[in-house]
Design brief:
Structural class: alpha+beta
Number of strands: 5
CATH topology of one domain: 60s Ribosomal Protein L30, Chain: A
Helix content: 25-40%
Order of helices and strands: HHEEHEHEHE
CATH superfamily of one domain: OmpA-like domain
Strand content: 5-15%
Largest sheet: 5 strands, mixed
CATH architecture of one domain: 2-Layer Sandwich
Radius of gyration: 25 Å
Oligomer: single chain
Amino acid sequence: MKTKLFYSLAFALAVTLAATGCRHKAPPLTPMHAGMTPPLPTETGPITLPLGPTISNPGEPTTGGGIPMGGQELYQNMIQDRAALAADTIHFAFDSAVIRDSERANLHAVASALASDSSTKLLIEGNCDERGTEEYNRSLGERRALAAREALAKLGVDPMRIFTRSYGKDKPADTGHDEAAWKQNRRDDFVLLHPKPGV
């Protein structure tokens, strides 16, 4: 009799625990690739410059305080030269917007190109690898672009000549899914902007 009562109570307790456990599901995880580690806190220094011209794609949220009055028109009246500074792309460590010492020579080359022609402007495109959410990477790409803008300002470039745009993880340089590809995708691309003739 006692054995039957014990098993009945144990069964009832098990059913109750199972039913209760089903109501407390863990929140869904962000899809991650095999071997991927969750994002770490980003190591960034404070951005001290006022936010300058930031370009957004149609339907894409504008970040960085938006484009100052006349900024969009100014950008649209420029010709993009992607080849001129293609060799000066800078790369970042995982989940970081800190510019490493090894990338400083490229920034000096960009500053020199801008100093040699005062009519030119610059577009900095911040990019990330595929890990993390779209929103997180869009923000990280923006911080990377703004970090380069600030570094160039310290080299004497007028920050109002610099536009920034974040592509997040939307424009990979390498479409692979390993560290070799991710290393290439964590970057800032520099696009030299020339005024259109007659403008």
